[in-house]
Amino acid sequence: MLICNNLEKSFDNVLFSNFDLTVKPGEIIAITGPSGCGKTTLLRCICGLDFIDSGTITLDDNDITEWPAEDRGIGMIFQRPVLFPHLNVEQNLLLGNKSGDVEQSLKEVNMSGFENRSVNNLSGGEGQRISLARALLANPRVLLLDEPFSSIDEELSMKLVEDVRKILKKRQTPAILVTHNKTIARKFADSVISLS
Amino acid sequence: MLQWLMHKMRTKLIHKLTIFCYFSIILIPLWLAVDRLVWVAGYDVVGWFHAINENYISNGVLGFTVFQALLSTIITLLYGLPIAWQLGRYEWKFQSLIKSILTMPFVMPSIIAAIGFLQIIGNNGLDLRSNDSAMYTTLILAHAWFNLSLVIRFCEPVLSTLDPSLEDQLRLLPAGKSFYSRLRILWIPLLAPSIAAAACMTFVFSFTSFALVRWITVGENTLESMMAEIGSSAGINGYMIARNEIILSSSIIQFAILLVSLWIMSELQSRRKNAIPFKPEKFVKKRNPIGWAIILPGLCFSVLPLVMIFISSFRIRTIENGVSTLNWSTEGWSFAFTPTNVLPSAYDALLNSLGYAFFTLLFALPLGWGLCNAIIHHEKVNPRFARFIDIMTLLPFAVSSVMIGLGVMLGMIRINPEFFYSSWFTPVIAHVMITTPFVVRILLPAMRSLDPIYDECGMTLGLSKVNRFVKIRLPLLKGSIIIASIFTIAMSLGEFGASWVVTRNSDWTTLPIIIDTFRGVPYDRTLTVPAANAIASILMLMALSVFTFTERFRKSEQGGMF
Questions:
Q1: Does the CB of B466 have a partner CB in chain A at under 8 Å?
Q2: pLDDT (tens digit, 9 = 90+) per residue, B119-174?
Q3: CA of A134: which chain B residue's CA is closest?
């Protein structure tokens, strides 16, 4: 269980303060809000890419507030697919887990047979599916999704929203989605929080 | 937060250490050298500049240096622009091979160019060495040969990436009916920054030319060759004070001219960038059979000095009954590798050169990498300091190789003369000073363009710092690291000016130095010139292999010097 308690972060102005959030096992939460309200920064603080000014983040009873990102066990899918261009699909996936079952992972995201493909030839949707497969292969304790559907066309993004939700629910992986699209938020998450 | 703070402090410490190392290696020897020269010459700055005018050694040298550099620049542009135009505007069979051959002279060590042109005008070729004016023409042509690559690399990308429909459109408008009007409206404004940048760099290289001046225009000095020749008697208290004054004033003049040229060049480069599309499109280009009339002579001229070196390594002069004849033989090659009481063996020179190149790489690459990291880090937190380090890494470009050699020599003598005269390692210091700025210039743009999201993504996948470095950062920067490494090795192998000054008073020799030594042996030793050509052929082959290998990692649209 992920518990964010009294989080505060400011750059030039206060992005969020007194922010509390609890994500139970298997629960999917969406955070919506206008551009610049601190949604992405919140995710970056939770996974350790940025640090909060005050407050605590607890994951499965461990205070991870000061832990470096690589030790937190929190996965993240970025706005655009971040796939390493010097590695093929399989090698990209194995970065998440050296002994992971690549075939099964690809099957899970409907990308079977893509093992040896170059990541440079994938479409936006395919790239996000591979990013998801890689993040899941690392068996994250929580998965953070930073507007991963925004760079894909509407029809495809709705399909991807359904697919990703099914996979997360099947695996009982807790997740936080950040989006400015309320339709996607409602369709994807069990509950929606608005950050203003 | 505590862990994060400790990580930040560790990073800061590494950056500070790198910057300190750089300043120690690059600036301290130069500072000590100036200090020693001033100690001998005194503080009469006006007197230093009087000495350059009044002394017979330096009289007229500045004028000749500027004149030959200006003329070389003009001839290089006249020779290079038509070739760049043909390459950029038309489709050619074997385009990349043509480009490689034409740009190859630039990666050749300067001593190779000198030896090659000596063969063309020597008794193996046109036999013009006794003609004084032919010597000056040869020097200018040799500079044009050497710097052609700059004109092609600067101008060709602008020409080849411009949408041809722009010219077609202009042709249909009243203002662009004639070729000259199109040149005035379209091409000159577009090409001017690139032409000027190429001109600036050609001027800089011709201004600081050493090996070519030393060997082609015997008896006539540029500031660079003069400083190299009188440098060994400088820095001794009470001895030949005028020479110290001449070196000081020449260095200041040379430094100022180079600094201004490089500043203009850097301004032009940023304007030039705007002329090249960020993502160049490929356009269907026409073929131009008549253009071969420009390309073919260019190709022949590019390979001629190199072919002459190789052929001449097998031509042995024999003198019988006062008559000199040339015969084919491999004796020059065997002589090159046989040590004598007077001359060292090419084996020694080869091993030394490889050793120096290896150690130069060992120091210059991590140092350059660290500096790039420090610059990028400070660009985020303290842009002014980042700009300061950036400029400091450019500083050695404004100091010629002979000045660096003098810096190392006089600086080391100031610290520990015994170590300077006996240490095998000394040339490495000069080579590191020369190559580190190139490493920074190659790595910095690549590291700047590396999206930090890759590293962040690696973090969220649980990869440790070492793993992220090995699996993500290193492979993504592989091309630039290889280019920087090869460039460092090639520059160290072919470095002549600084090595000549530094090794002059020691037993250590390198391939370019041994070529110079063999060429300097009196004319009645018939095997020394073919032996010098044989060693030059080996050096040439090494430079060529390195160049061909590097080309595989270069993006064609990059242009520029590296």
A1: no
A2: 898 877 787 777 778 888 999 999 999 999 889 988 888 888 776 667 767 776 67
A3: B461
pLDDT digit string, tens, across residues A109-133:
888 999 999 988 888 889 988 998 8
Does residue B305 sit within a domain?
yes
β-sheet bridge partners, residue A16: A9
Nearest CA in chain A to B475: A86
Strand partners, B324: B319
| Radius of gyration from C-alpha coordinates of chain A | 16
- Judged on CB neighbours under 10 Å (0-12, 13-18, 19+), B329 is middle
Give the minimum alpha-carbon distance from B556 to chain A in angstroms, rounded to a whole number.
19
Looking at the complex, report in whole angstroms how far the Cα of residue A29 sits from the nearest Cα belonging to chain B. Answer: 19
- Interface confidence: ipTM more than 0.90: no
- Give the relative orientation of helices B110-121 and B511-519 as an angle to the nearest 10 degrees: 30
If DSSP codes are grouped into helix, strand and coil, which group holds residue A51? coil
**From A73, which residue of chain B is nearest by alpha-carbon distance?**
B462
Token code pair at residue A159:
């399909």
Length of chain B: 562
Return the H-helix or E-strand segment holding A192: strand A191-194
3-state secondary structure of A32: strand
Q: A62 by DSSP, 3-state: which?
A: strand
Question: What is the least distance, in Å, from the CA of B164 to any CA of chain A?
Answer: 29
φ and ψ at B278, to 5 degrees?
Answer: -60, -45
B250 in any annotated domain: no
For residue B476, the chain A residues in CB contact (below 8 A) are: 84-86
Give contacts of B 469-528 with A, CB under 8 A. Answer: 471-472, 475-476, 478
Alpha helices in B398-496 (DSSP H): 401-415, 417-422, 426-449, 452-460, 465-468, 474-476, 478-494
Helix then strand then coil, % of chain A, to nearest 5? 35, 25, 40
Span B24-34, pLDDT tens digits:
887 787 888 88
With contact defined as beta carbons under 8 Å apart, do B427 and B510 qualify? yes
- Distance to chain A for B457, nearest Cα, Å: 7
Which chain A positions have a beta carbon within 8 Å of B461's beta carbon? 70, 75, 95-96, 134-135, 138
CB proximity list for B345: less than 8 A, separation 6 or greater? B336, B337, B338, B339
Tell me how far apart the terminal alpha carbons of chain B are, to the nearest angstrom.
Answer: 42
Q: What is the DSSP letter of B349?
A: H
Is the residue at B273 inside a domain?
A: yes
Range of the domain at B128: 63-221+261-312
In a 13 Å sphere around the CA of B255, the CA atoms on its Cβ side amount to 15
Rounded to 5 degrees, what angle do the CA atoms B345, B351, B357 make?
135
Residue B148, in any domain of the structure: yes
Domain count, chain B: 1
d(CA A44, CA A47): 5
First-residue to last-residue Cα distance in chain A: 25
Chain B residue with the nearest C-alpha to that of A55: B1
We report the CATH number of the domain holding residue B273 as 1.10.3720.10
Q: Name the nearest CA neighbour of A157 among A124, A130, A133, A120.
A: A124
The whole-model pTM stands at 0.80
What CA–CA distance (Å, rounded) separates A53 from B483?
A: 43
- Number of CB pairs, chain A paired with chain B, less than 8 A apart: 66
Residue numbers in B near A144 (CB within 8 A):
460
Calculate helix-pair angle for B426-449, B478-494, nearest 10 degrees.
160
